[in-house]
Amino acid sequence: MNKMQLRCFLTAAETLHFGRAAQRLEILPASFGRQVKQLEDHLGVALFRRTTRDVTLTEAGEAAVEDARDLLAQIDAFEAKVRAVRMAKSHVLRVGAIDSAAAGLLPQILPLMRASHPDLEIQIVEQKTIHLLPKLLSGSLDIAFCRPPDVRDPRLVFRTLFHESAVVALPADHRLASRDRIDIADLADEPLIVPDRRSRPHSHDLTIILFLRAGLTARISQIAEEKQTIVNLVSSGTGLAIVPRWTSRLRVQGVRFLPLRTKDAAPQAKLILASAWARNTRDPERDALMELLDGHLSEIEASA
User: Fold this and answer.
1) CATH, range 3-85
2) Which uninterrupted H or E stretch holds 145?
3) For 263-285, what is each residue's pLDDT tens digit?
């Protein structure tokens, strides 16, 4: 039995819907169901009655809810106490970042942080938002730069920094590559490469929403996971892609990045970049990083 199994059980008990519970925890439904099944196997009893129409708690499930909630609170308190001791003695700042922030934000702010705190060790973890947020809760990250989810965990603090604009990645020899900027209408008949919505909902929805607002339907030809893969596919002629502006720093040969012209520049044509950290935690190094970022936010935003 582990913490994730307890969290999945309690979330399912609150929602009585495995799909919504999985979405709230930002994990795949199959993984969510597996966690619940493993807990039931460990306890040797069914916690839910599941039919094609609804989900209900069994008698054992109802009896376990309060104890599970108390146990999870004790685990959270234990982790917070250990984190506090670690942070009080450590001079390490663990920073998580989505690929766009790792390409555009960190190269601008981390050299300034190292200059002002030369004894501080900075560790960087580059992953998707869906993987960074659990690391904040477990204490393995001190701060993350990410896309804030639609449903925000109350145990985390999210602070919007700015909106990152979108650009179009296209082969350098494409008929549109000589333009200064591109309209959505120009892409109406173009094959598009988009991220998988399960792992990158904001980047995926950016393309879909821009087309819908223009009265068009995106012609999706390929789904890909990583930004680097998407840009490489653009280079190979697989299709075009609408990506965050900082993705252009990947510098793949044979690919141009052109500004996207839209009727209203925010928020549909841009992606929120936020900082996030565990609520009710004290971390002088993290606070110093945020203070430094505040002092340079306007110039960094200009590059996004």
Assistant:
1) 1.10.10.10
2) strand 143-146
3) 654 455 578 899 999 999 989 99
